[in-house]
Write a structure and sequence with these properties.
461 residues; eleven-stranded mixed beta sheet; two-stranded antiparallel ribbon; 4 helices
Length: 461
């Protein structure tokens, strides 16, 4: 039976060309799976309308096939960019010197290039280019220099210091009023704050030398030292310690070391205090030396004294027990023999005593009652045990009316300052007994010679 259809094996390969296929004759059903390859598709023949939704997945995209030209504008958002994927090389170029910052809208913006010497400044909201600040000490709000190249360094509220050469101040109001005073150093709050023309002063400590105006050549280290020092009559003093020389106003060449040492001194000269509160009770003492804790001159206005230790010192130790004194004949006048009454008669009138200390200063009322007597001697316990010596009032009665004794200060007044007031007292200087003792021995020697002569006569020699 004759065939009425044409089968695929009746057509020779390559016989059917495009012109032999009717329009719309080839449907998807007529195409074998995977028969249409990229080579069978005319360039640009497949548009977006020919692709089904979600038809193109990553497996269907050739490596490096998606270029910038294939990406629609604004198609890549933040969510499409992986973290740390944008390198500096991927960023657009930026003019040299510009800075990216956040603008008022919260968007990144390029800050224009600043000018030479400017720095970034902020008003608390935005940044901008502004003044770079001080280029020298004078440009700082709390530091200034004057008088040349850093000859005055004011690290404080700047004063008018046009002529104050070679000076330094550190601290609020330190050296604040200086005008022409040179070579001064003030460190800490109000140190030398009133100084105007004074020179060569060094004050280290809060309010040290705070009221001095034209004092000269003073050195103080410690809070409140030289607190009352005022004018040019305060010269060449040195105080080291809290409130050392704190009341000195116009004295000269005084030296103190220790808290409140020479703290009461006001206007006098040539004193030395070494130790906590040493010489602190002396207000107008002159040429006095006080060494040791709470050591003091015999009176507030004493002069030419040397005090070693306070009233608790009971043992003076030194390898050489002798003390030399000036005694050159060329420095003396009206030299006369000591009166006969100042020899054996005087010695015989003295009353050597034994006693125990019961000091008034130990009692708040300044009235001893025996309750604080230390009867048993202990080497480490001051004023303990039985002592021997003289009673000042008794010696004073013996020397009364004798000028050579009284003027030599064998017995002299003293003052003791306590927390409960001042105690007056008397001091006895036993070294002044040497001269009358020598006189007494000479008198005894003469008497002995006379007795020997009489004995020889009686014995017929």
């Amino acid at each position: 039976m004759a065939r009425t259809t044409i089968r695929g094996d009746d057509i020779t390969d390559g016989t059917v060309v495009v012109g032999d296929i009717a329009d719309d004759a080839v449907t998807t059903a007529k195409i074998i799976n995977d028969a249409v390859t990229a080579a069978k598709i005319v360039a640009n023949a497949v548009g977006s309308s020919e692709l089904a939704d979600d038809a193109v997945d990553t497996a269907a995209i050739a490596d490096d096939a998606v270029t910038a030209a294939k990406i629609v504008a604004d198609a890549v958002g933040t969510s499409e960019i992986a973290d740390n994927s944008v390198s500096l090389a991927k960023m657009a170029g930026l003019v040299r010197g510009k800075i990216i910052y956040g603008d008022a809208s919260g968007d990144p913006a390029a800050l224009t290039v600043g000018t030479n010497g400017q720095a970034l400044v902020s008003d608390g909201t935005d940044i901008s280019w502004g003044s770079a600040g001080a280029s020298s000490l004078n440009g700082l709000s709390d530091v200034s220099t004057a008088g040349g190249t850093a000859r005055v360094a004011m690290i404080s509220i700047p004063p008018s210091a046009s002529g104050a050469d070679y000076s330094v101040s550190i601290g609020t109001e330190a050296l604040d009023a200086v005008t022409s005073g040179s070579s001064n150093v003030a460190i800490n709050y109000q140190a030398l704050s009133a100084l105007t023309t004074g020179t060569r002063n060094i004050m280290i400590g809060s309010q040290a030398g705070r009221v001095a105006t034209d004092a000269d050549g003073n050195t103080g280290v410690g809070h409140g030292c030289f607190y009352q020092m005022t004018d040019s009559n305060a010269i060449d003093n040195a105080g080291f310690g809290y409130h050392a020389l704190t009341n000195l106003s116009t004295g000269k060449r005084n030296s103190s070391l220790g808290k409140s040492s020479l703290g009461g001194l006001t206007t006098t000269d040539h004193n030395t205090g070494c130790g906590h509160s040493a010489g602190s009770s002396g207000t107008t003492i002159s040429n006095c030396w006080a060494g040791g804790y709470s050591s003091d001159a015999s009176a507030a206005d004493a002069s030419n004294e040397f005090t070693m230790g306070n009233a608790s010192i009971s043992n003076l130790r030194c390898n050489d027990t002798s003390i030399s004194s000036l005694s050159d004949e060329r420095d003396k006048t009206q030299i006369e023999d000591l009166p006969e009454e100042a020899g054996l008669e005087f010695i015989n009138n003295l009353q050597p005593r034994t006693f125990y200390w019961d000091r008034r200063s130990w009692y708040d009322s300044h009235t001893p009652d025996g309750s604080k007597v230390k009867s048993d001697y202990k080497r480490w316990k001051a004023n303990s045990g039985q002592k021997m010596g003289f009673v000042s009032q008794e010696v004073q009665g013996v020397i009364s009316g004798k000028k050579y004794f009284e003027d030599s200060a064998m017995v002299s007044p003293s003052v003791t300052e306590t927390d409960n007031g001042t105690i007056d007292g008397l001091e006895f200087a036993p070294s002044h007994l040497i001269t009358p003792l020598v006189k007494a021995i000479q008198q005894l020697s003469e008497q002995n010679s006379q007795l020997i002569a009489r004995i020889e006569v009686l014995e017929g020699n």
